[in-house]
Amino acid sequence: SQTIHQWPATLVQPVGSPLSLECTVEGTSNPNLYWYRQAAGRGLQLLFYSVGIGQISSEVPQNLSASRPQDRQFILSSKKLLLSDSGFYLCAWSPPIQGLSPLHFGNGTRLTVT
Amino acid sequence: GDSVTQMEGPVTLSEEAFLTINCTYTATGYPSLFWYVQYPGEGLQLLLKATKADDKGSNKGFEATYRKETTSFHLEKGSVQVSDSAVYFCALILTGGGNKLTFGTGTQLKVEL
What we know:
- Chain A is mainly β.
- Chain A is built from no helices and eleven strands.
């Protein structure tokens, strides 16, 4: 069966420090991968999605970037964190097929920028 | 653009009460519709889905019917339990939309004894 791992679960970082959140998927090949952010009191915002190694689409301009160095690895990064980067970050995957398949989410990383 | 609108929360109910969480959507095409649930401190889990008009998705006592004429996908449960306390998200995916989910803002449900 397929599983998705996301870490760390919580993170407290000072303003201006770098960020690296990692997500890996097991049990499937060539998945679509996604990073979402859930800010306090707000809904879920799609940040990045990827349909293959090295293929990243950014949905909103921001202080963050994403990379996919391996088929089942998706990394969210920042060179210098802002206070507004605080939130709950969720990685998700879906099968590599055309069509309307649901996304499967990791347990999330709660980031607090101080 | 495509969007999902949910009723604002929190919704507070007594155990065994009837639940309705409203969800309406705007889409340029013909979407598939989903409800996700997020328990405290966790990620999102798919609760149910419907892919065409008049389809009814159901799971764990929850139901939602895809109503194309009213562009709605309201979530219902006949008798809620304390363990149903969570945040519920309505979402859609459009054909040709790159399999990207568009979410509503979420509705927090609190069930009390």
